């Protein structure tokens, strides 16, 4: 537990350092930056057992000076117009306390360490790599996304299709149940080793500029998981739908 706290503090210090450094970049000093504040709304269902759909309203901040950028909990650097590298604060994949099942509540939280993220953009196609940095999880994912413009007028609409290849370790972290966890439930939930579970995601994005500074971005997404995911005793379905909306004001 103490080691986990130390690591979380280290991740936070690293993110704070990158944010601080980005604000003092020469481009920012020259007034070539874009800083935005706003609100982020999220509504999503879950593939895990007995977890209700969740709605959240969170503060949102973004900054981009042409080299360094910050988007929520992601801090990164533009190496070129085609290549970005970033660090993402640890994710929580599944919190058992969100489930109404008393046995599932006895399981461990599914979470990642700090993540390295690399994106390569080639026209309408983007390739991505996400790799765990903590050393606790030997997990990674590879993605490819094709984005097409669908409408351009008073507002903009784009459609995207993404395929995400997840490593076996990542799938095990999200969907497996250890022997220790199974014993904790008295054997009600069986131990399970997950196979690799990949994802196919469809996204429809609406971009509505109300002025030169105020913009609303709404994303509708639907994710299909490999059928094998429902073999996990903590998963009840292989599809997930979500809506995110960001209302931001650029200074």
Can you describe this structure?
- By secondary structure, the protein is of the alpha+beta class.
- The chain has a single domain, classed as Porin.
- Helices cover 16% and strands 47% of the residues.
- The chain has helices at 2-23, 26-29, 168-175, 179-184; strands spanning 34-44, 54-64, 68-71, 74-78, 83-88, 92-94, 110-111, 115-122, 125-132, 140-152, 156-166, 199-209, 214-225, 239-250.
- Strands 1-2-3-4-5-8-9-10-11-12-13-14 form a twelve-stranded antiparallel beta barrel.
- Strand 3 (68-71) and strand 4 (74-78) form a beta hairpin.
- The longest helix is centred in the N-terminal third of the chain and has 22 residues, at 2-23.
- The model is unreliable at 1-32 (pLDDT under 50).
Query: In percent, how helical is the residue content?
Result: 10-25%
Structural class: alpha+beta
* CATH fold call: Porin
**Which stretches are low in confidence, meaning pLDDT under 50 for 5 or more residues running?**
1-32
Q: Please report which band the strand proportion falls in: under 5%, 5-15%, 15-25%, 25-35%, 35-45% or over 45%.
A: over 45%
Give the SSE string. HHEEEEEEEEEEEHHEEE
DSSP E strands, number:
14
Radius of gyration, taken over Cα atoms and rounded to an integer in Å? 20 Å
Q: In DSSP terms, counting alpha (H) and pi (I) runs of 4 or more, how many helices?
A: 4
Shape: globular
Largest sheet: 12 strands, antiparallel, barrel
Distance between the termini: 41 Å
Mean pLDDT over the residues: 88
CATH architecture: Beta Barrel
Q: How many structural units, i.e. domains? A: 1
Strand order of the largest sheet: 1-2-3-4-5-8-9-10-11-12-13-14
- The CATH C-level class name: Mainly Beta
Subcellular location: Cell outer membrane
Pfam families: MipA
Protein name: MipA/OmpV family protein
Main location: membrane
């Amino acid at each position: 537990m103490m080691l986990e706290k130390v690591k979380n503090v280290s991740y936070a210090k690293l993110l704070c350092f990158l944010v601080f450094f980005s604000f003092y970049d020469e481009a920012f000093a020259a007034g070539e930056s874009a800083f935005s504040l706003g609100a982020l709304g999220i509504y999503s269902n879950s593939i895990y057992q007995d977890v209700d759909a969740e709605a959240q309203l969170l503060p949102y901040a973004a900054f981009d000076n042409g080299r360094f950028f910050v988007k929520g909990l992601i801090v990164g650097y533009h190496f070129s117009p085609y290549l970005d590298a970033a660090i993402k604060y640890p994710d929580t994949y599944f919190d058992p306390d969100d489930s109404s099942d008393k046995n599932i509540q006895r399981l461990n939280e599914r979470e990642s360490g700090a993540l390295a993220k690399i994106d390569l953009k080639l026209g309408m196609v983007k390739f991505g790599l996400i790799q765990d940095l903590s050393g606790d999880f030997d997990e990674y994912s590879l993605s490819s996304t094709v984005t097409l413009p669908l409408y351009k007028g008073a507002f903009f609409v784009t459609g995207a299709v993404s395929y995400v290849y997840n490593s076996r370790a990542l799938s095990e972290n999200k969907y497996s149940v250890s022997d220790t966890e199974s014993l904790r439930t008295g054997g009600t939930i069986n131990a399970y080793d997950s196979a690799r579970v990949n994802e196919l995601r469809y996204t429809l994005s609406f971009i509505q500029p109300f002025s030169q500074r105020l913009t609303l971005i709404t994303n509708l997404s639907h994710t299909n998981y490999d059928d094998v995911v429902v073999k996990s005793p903590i998963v009840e379905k292989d599809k997930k739908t979500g809506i995110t909306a960001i209302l931001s004001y650029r200074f």
